[in-house]
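Input.
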Amino acid sequence: MKQEPLLDKINSPEKLKELPLPLLPGLAAEIRERIIEVVNRNGGHMASNLGVVELTIAMHRVFNSPKDQFIWDVGHQCYTHKILTGRNDRFDSIRLKDGLSGFPKRNESKHDIFETGHASTSISAALGLLIGKRLKGEKGKVIAVIGDGAITGGMAFEALNHSGYLRKDLIIIYNDNNMSISKNVGGLSSRSAISKSSSFVSRIAGTRSYQRIRDLIDKGLLSIPFFGYRIFQFVMRMKRGVKAVFLKETIFSELGFEYVGPIDGHSISMLTKVLENVKKLHKPVIVHVVTRKGKGYSKAEENPADYHGVSPIPSPMDSNSFTENTFTSIFGELVLESASKDKNIVVVTAAMGKGTGLNSFQEAFPTRFFDVGIAEQHALTFGAGLAASGLKPVVAIYSTFMQRAVDQLIHDIAIPGFPVVIAMDRSGLVSSDGETHQGAFDISLFRAVPGITIFAPGSAEEFKIMLDYAFSADRPVLFRYPKAECLKGVNGTNLPIVEGRGVFIRKSSGKVLIITVGGLVDEALRSCEILKDQDIETDLYNLRFIKPIDKEYLLDIISEYSYAFMVEEGSRKGGVGEYIASLLLESKSDVLFQHKGIPEEFLTQALRSELLAYCGLDGPGIARFVSQFVVKKILREKDTVCITV
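Output.
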């Protein structure tokens, strides 16, 4: 007999607690169907969310959110949490403009305690919340849920070390699915690292009765006159030795945590029992939960990497509805082609080999491909070491994650001047993932760093000649490019590289100049056509270089025009436009100059096309930006003439 639908009746954790245990597997199946349906339509994180359905149900059964606080590392696995905390009626809007976020958001619900979007932050945040609670005399537990991919990040180990030292009752659920975006790497990534035979013993160790007996034995040994402390130390060494041989849990135990697991992450009854025991402990605890990424959806189970992030159904209005000729795919092809000719070229990525288009390189040159896990800082300094050895490393990382490795770029690469090529995918405006994933700040962060080159290719041909130039350079070279279609055959972009100089893509006898760079070339070209229909003849200059810029050459070009406009897909503050404005001010130029970029705000989720329109960086927006100043100046001059007459 088919179970009556339950999901529509669950609008809070309290309602979930009222359900009998035998009905919960049916509820889990309904939640999976809901996630699969919506994510296939809207896009989003599929496999990671399907893997934690039962775990999330058990957490909300045992703990009392928001008094007990959940911190989701990365936050990309919080869909079930959102559904169970009163947001099922809005779940159809997830990742859409003005809809639910795909990550925890404090302004959405009292159950979203901490906003996450990048990896390895949950333990630090959870420890801070817990210490705050205890200092204020508040009760309640704090639970961090961290995946085996995120725990490879150095920040997670820093927080584990501090948590064990403080000995507070922090609960860490270690979600072991052997995957991050791509398959995990490193000593903690293998499930065999902790023997399944330890499961029963470690579950007993997580009970209060076991803890009481152990405390009594410890106190009894220490109370023995003269020899008690020595006997206690001997027993502790013996216990650690046994754990090292049989339980393999010493990495957590040595850090001061009680270890419980591994637990079947898809058994609600077992998860509930274990979490109820753990909730009663007054010391830091690691609960090791084994889940299957993509659980319940055969396509995602068979290929969790492809179903980590699912693209939405294509829409004619979305600039993400592109062909296979994306900047990402072109980059992957060009690096593979270059590496086929030069055996010194090696590739480093931080758990995003597929996302950065490097799968083919990995297959062709497995010994020259290094996935370091979710460890961007290590990736850059590792790349510096490779360069110091005489190799030509390419480090491929999303722009938003490069924010995490600013010090490594400056200290380990730029100061010694190592020739590392850094490819920043997803620069500029990024669809659907919201504030944490926008690539708005890389220009502002890195333009000030001495001794580096920053390129922004505007076409496939330009990408190739820039990459060839980078491999022959004797200094660090950064590339920035968007998650968008990469044009081919754009006028001028196949010309040779001249240090610090760009190329004209469109040139006439007009008095209006648009300056742009990289991923906005196509939108700037559209704006020129729109302006032409308004009888405003416009030239288009592609900078190519974000750094260095031949300032005398650029000033000479601008001086030929009455109006100059800079448009860039990066933060307006600290961007190239501000730099050009300062040059014109220093040179006392009388050219009317204006610049436009991403405004000084954290942009919420929307399609890239919608974000471009919001920022006024799409073709029509750029045309409006230009025409309003040109038309105003013309009208003002006409008014002046009339008054003079």
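The first strand starts at residue 69 and ends at 72.
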